[in-house]
Design goal:
Number of helices: 12
Largest sheet: 8 strands, mixed
Structural class: alpha/beta
Distance between the termini: 73 Å
Strand content: 15-25%
Shape: elongated
Length: 396
């Protein structure tokens, strides 16, 4: 963190870096304060691996953009009262080209809703984590009174994270009373902890307090710039289910939705599987050709049929562990019949990348049947041993 001397208008607000305050002394956090808040949430996601996450008051969707990369999350939802902001930022949550080339293991759906955080919508029931980042201080007294019953009582997620300004930090910027013109209040640590503890006790949660934004040296007594409450639903105490009472209560307006490609979708799995299989088949074919050339150099033309079983060291290379090599060698060998090269499906399934995509021979056969040539009994992929693209050495 730096303290810089600057002349700025009293009460000015600059981004999320807490250049929010005062005539001469401006505190800059490194990383910026908003990034520290987001990193706190990311660390929670890393530790607890929630499947369904909602961000109330998602604003410009920056937090959602950071969370969508986590493989554990399968449903990511943002809610905000500013519909225009949701429309202008939704496209940033779309899948990139690389996410089609290398899809996720699990499905991910991203949805943005327009609505108030104190409205009840049954589509937000059953979430693992709900975040409220710098939200509650924007609520008027009526909405703040409704907030706990909606979030903790009705939605009743497994975990809730609430961040809010710490008013005790504000005297470091003596000419500012509130950090943002839209803030209805800013609480001291005691005020926030009293409110949060009462909410936790009322709705069978426990709460822990922490924060981000360390104060300057000599001002440690004021606490963190942003105070944070982490609420966890008490185990063994089942909150009253509202799903049966308010089933299909849809009050939010869907502004944006997208679904990411994943290996759970058959067309995506087929695309990736066939591509990886063809790469492995081509490697085996070319290595087999190289083995034949080496045999001819060493032994010269041989009468009768030649042993076309590929040498293990030529097929495996050095990219596999010893255990993987052993597993591959315990499967049927590729073989030749004339100018046709056969690679058993059992062999292909032993290769690590293909094994991750498909563990069952029948399943593999059904996925690749209309994309590659199979043997008459369906047990092997069949390709030409030579094709027009192959390198042909010149005769001496």
């Amino acid at each position: 963190m730096e303290v810089a001397e600057k002349n700025i208008p009293c009460g000015s607000v600059v981004g999320g870096n807490f250049e929010e305050v005062c005539p001469e002394r401006v505190i800059r956090f490194k990383p910026p304060l908003y990034k520290q808040r987001y990193q706190f949430v990311r660390d929670l996601v890393d530790r607890h691996e929630p499947k369904k996450v909602a961000d109330l008051g998602c604003g410009d969707t920056k937090l959602l953009k950071l969370l969508k990369i986590y493989p554990c999350i399968q449903l990511l939802v943002g809610i905000d009262i500013n519909e225009e902001k949701l429309h202008s930022n939704g496209h940033y949550l779309s899948p990139y080209l690389g996410e089609f080339v290398k899809p996720r293991d699990l499905d991910l759906t991203v949805i943005l809703y327009h609505g108030s955080v104190v409205e009840r919508d049954s589509r937000l029931l059953g979430f693992d984590l709900i975040t409220c980042i710098e939200l509650i201080e924007h609520l008027n007294s009526d909405d703040l009174a409704k907030f706990p019953e909606v979030v903790f009582g009705y939605l009743s997620p497994s975990m809730v994270v609430i961040t809010t300004p710490n008013a005790e930090f504000n005297p470091l910027f003596p000419t500012v009373s509130l950090r943002d013109a839209d803030h209805k209040f800013e609480w001291s640590r005691k005020e926030f902890q009293t409110w949060a503890s009462r909410v936790a006790n009322c709705y069978s949660y426990c709460v822990e307090f922490t924060g981000v934004g360390t104060p300057p040296a000599g001002s440690e007594h004021v606490g963190y710039c942003t105070q944070i409450g982490v609420f966890r639903k008490n185990s063994g105490k089942l909150a009253e289910s509202r799903a049966s009472q308010q089933h299909d209560r849809h009050v939010y307006k869907v502004v944006y939705t997208t679904t990411y490609p994943s290996l759970q979708q058959e067309k995506v799995l087929k695309f990736v599987l066939v591509g990886e299989l063809l790469i492995q088949v081509e490697r085996l074919r070319l290595r087999h050709q190289r083995m034949l050339r080496e045999q001819e150099k060493e032994l010269g033309p041989q009468p009768g049929p030649m042993d076309c079983s590929p040498a293990p060291h030529l097929l495996l290379g050095a990219v596999f562990t010893e255990a993987e090599k052993a597993r591959i060698e315990n499967t049927p060998q590729p073989f030749c019949e004339g100018e046709k090269f056969f690679i058993p499906l059992r062999r292909l399934l032993a290769y690590p990348k293909l094994q991750l995509l498909c563990t069952d021979e029948e399943r593999m056969r059904s996925l690749i049947a209309d994309s590659v040539s199979l043997s008459s009994d369906g047990s092997a992929v069949v390709v030409d041993l030579h094709n027009s693209w192959d390198y042909q050495p010149e005769d001496n």
